[in-house]
C-alpha cells in the first residue's frame, strides 16, 4: 500500500509519451510512427497527422515582434563621422539621421491614443488666446497674466432711434464735452493685425478744421509704431515675466490646424526680429524654440503647398538667424543685443532639420551650405 500523505512528483514518473504532451492536447486519433526526417508525401491520414504534430512541435510557444532597438546601431562610414571641410558648417549626417529617427518616434507617441483619461483641471475656462489673435498670442507666450491676453470684451450701449427706420441705430455718446477732441482707437482685426478703428472722426469739428498735411507722414508712422508696440512693451515697463512654457496639457488642446497657424506666427515674429535685431520686444527666446519644436510634432505628415510654404519660411528664418550669429562671432556685439535667453544656434538647427527632414525639403540644405559658406 502507498503511505498516506506521500505524493509522487511528475518528474518521478516514467511516463515518456510524446503523444500526450500538455501543449498539444491528448491524442485521440492514431498517428504513424515515422522518423523525424520523414519528408515524403503522406500516404494516409496517420502519416499526415504525424507530419502535422511534428511541425507543430517545431513552432515556438510564444512569438513577438522584433524590437528595432535591440539591433546594433549601424556604423556610419568614416566620411560621415568626419565630414569634409566644405561641409563642416553643417550638422553631420549621423546627427541628422539620429535626430529624425527620434523625432519621428516622438510624433508617433504624441499621435497615438492612450487608455488614460485626462481630466482637464481648467474645465471650460479659457487657457489660451483665440486662433487669430496674433498679438495676444505673443503676450501669452511672454508669460503675462490672463487679464492681458484675455481682456474682457467691452460692450457698447445701443439705443434704437426708431422701430420703423429699417434697423438704423446710433451709438450713445457718453461724454459730450470731449466731442471736439480727436480720439484714436486701435483694434485687432480678423487677420490678427493692429489697425486704426474708423471712428467717424471726419464729423468732429477738430478733424474738419485741421486737415492732415503731406509732411505729417513720418510723424504719423512713428505714432502708429508707438501705438502698435504699446501692447508688446507694456509688460517690460511694468515688471519682467517668465516666458510661458509649453506643457502636455496645453499641447493636447492644440490640433494640426492650430499648430500650423502658430508656426506661421513664429515665422512672422522671427522675420520681425531679423528686421529689428536691436529691439528687445521682438527677441526670439529659447522658450519660443521649445514651442516651435512641440508644434512641429503635432503637424501631420501630409500638408498643403501653402502650409509647406509657411514651414519653409520658418526654416529659412532659423537659417538666417544662424548666419547672423556666426557673422557676429568675430565682431564685438553690445550686451543689449545678446542674451542668454535668446534662441541658441542648436535650437535653430533642430527646427531647420525637422522641417527639411520630416517633410522632404532637402533642397534647404543646399541653401544652408551656400549661405554659411559666405558667412
Report on this model:
The protein is mainly alpha-helical and 375 residues long. It is 43% helix and 3% strand. The protein has 13 helices and 4 strands. The chain has helices at residues 45-58, 78-81, 93-111, 134-141, 146-149, 205-209, 217-238, 248-252, 256-275, 286-298, 305-327, 345-358, 363-373, and strands at residues 158-160, 169-171, 186-188, 194-196. Strands 1-2 form a two-stranded antiparallel ribbon. Helix 9 (256-275) packs antiparallel against helix 10 (286-298). The longest helix has 23 residues, at 305-327. The protein is elongated, with a radius of gyration of 35 Å. The protein starts with 44 loop residues before the first helix and ends with a helix. Residues 17-23, 79-87, 160-184 and 198-239 have low confidence and may be disordered.
Taking all Cα atoms into account, the compactness measure Rg is: 35 Å
* Structural class by SSE content: mainly alpha
Number of helices: 13
Low-confidence stretches: 17-23, 79-87, 160-184, 198-239
The residue fraction in helices comes out at 40-55%
Mean pLDDT: 74
Order of helices and strands: HHHHHEEEEHHHHHHHH
Shape: elongated
- Characterize the biggest β-sheet: 2 strands, antiparallel
Report the β-strand fraction as a percent range: under 5%
Going across the major beta sheet, what is the strand order?
1-2
End-to-end span in angstroms?
99 Å
The total of beta strands comes to 4
